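Working notes for the structural subgroup meeting. M.R. asked for a predicted model of this chain before we commit to crystallization trials. I am recording the input and output together here so anyone reviewing the notebook later can reproduce the run.

Input as submitted:
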Amino acid sequence: MFETKTEKQEKVYIVCPYTDMDNADYRTKELEQLAESALLDIVKTNCFLVKEINARTYMGIGKVEEIAKDVENLGADVVLFDCPLTGSQLRNLNETIGVKTIDRTMLILDIFAGRAKSSEGKLQVELAQLKYSLPRLSSLTANSNRSSTGVGMRGASETKLELDRRKIQENIVRLEKEIKEIQKHRQTTRKQRLSRMNSVALVGYTNAGKSTLMNTIAKAETYADNRLFATLDVLTKKVWDDGVEYVLIDTVGFVSNLPHELMYAFSATLEETIDADVLLVVVDASDKHKYEQIEVVERELDRLNVEKSRVILVFNKIDKISDEEIADLVKYPYTTCYIGAKKGINIVQLKQLIKEKLQNTTRY
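Returned structure, recorded in token form:
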């Protein structure tokens, strides 16, 4: 289980200043889910159009002052912006609003810092934090002075920002070297494992139910929770199913517009995906944004040159939608299965599809 917060839950005021309102509802909902995943108490979400980005405060100063009054009236402890902020923008917003100010990347880094469990995962998160903080030292230090606890202050934010730039750069070099050694060892052991056994990777949008599905198929005891990024490390479990043996791999979930600092941080997950014989792309069928989520995953699989023949598209949580909604689900050029992982719906059918694909691989 993850550690639970013992201190008072922080109140967050969410600001969504978009330069275009396409999919604004989708983007806003995702940030709210991230905030809830970090155990923040949302007091208000303020979504609006920004016609021109202000170099000092991202939006116009009048809007910033309006937000500052709102924050004071609602008693918010932290303001969360759904946009990438520069160091100067963070500093100026922090000074004008008067409470701790963070952006979406800082929130995700904080979540990752609290939940990565493996040695490599922890090192990758620390490396991502340092690379993000280096050009923003003065603004993040101001935030740290304002509040030394809570979201946005975990891990590197508490200790590394007290070091000078040269020390941080030295730590970045050290971490990259340590990670490279771990990756070299992991690649060797993975090649040895895959030379002996087939593999099936669970991929898809975060919170789609991958960990629950792994528990159902492999009778594993992986952590499963209805929160974004409940699983951050690559987890594996051996499965024996009617004469077919394979390794089932649970990976970190995709999220739209994942900061580039974190794309590199979790390359281990992508490598597992490339090597897998079968990919189960798990989608929450009850999520109204499921098609946008599928696009996110498809773009990444295309970037990795994953063949469609290796993919099984798994619409999960069908027990949460009607038969008519199931029938109306868009058809994709993949082998497709409709399941309810938590209740075991159509799991036998899915396992049969997995066996059929594995039996068509060169290993069999």
